[in-house]
Amino acid sequence: MLKIEDIHVYYGDSYVLQGISLEVSEGLIIAVLGRNGMGKTTLIRTAIGFMYPKRGKIFFKDMEITRRLPDERVGMGMGLVPQGRRVFRSLSVQENLTIGSRPKSGGWDLEAIYEIFPALKKRSNHMGNKLSGGEQQMLVIGRALMQNPEVLLMDEPTEGLAPLFVQAVNDLILRLKGEKFSVLLVEQNMDFALNLADKVHVMSRGHVVYSSSPQELLENEKVKRTFLGV
Known about the structure:
This protein is an alpha/beta fold.
């Protein structure tokens, strides 16, 4: 579904991604773990097209998209939940959800989003800047789902959330997993990610330094201690 081949990405003179390769197959949840500053967000930004690799290639549904613009990638079926709860603050909840929607028969619509996030339904006429942090995160996730993507890129979806909201995000991803949805999940919360993922990659200083099943990582104390600080 989404294939990243040996990408090398720079911020100015800073060599951020140093030969990253990974694949998100159809119906699988792939988690990327690592400490802050290791290149995880750059990976997501490059996958969606905000940044271009200096070397390497990106494929989506067997088509090379390395130099395609973000809106083209979204039109092809990629969705993004960015880090930082980037809602449209001057738009209502409902306007945020519908502004980029791509209706699909049997897909995600307002009713489906309000069913899984009932707090948003209660606040559908509130402006984005009047929501709590957890509500904003639900809104960002709902907005991405309203595009009915085939692959969802999620960058730190539980960052700074209270346990109640973390559980809501967990329940949603479990639902997506049950529906054979494809997800690339970047997280620092190891327990959260391992509970959901089919495969996990650990990043350190721009490299993938370890890849395994969630259970194998859970049992590998050296990798957890060295690269995740656990």
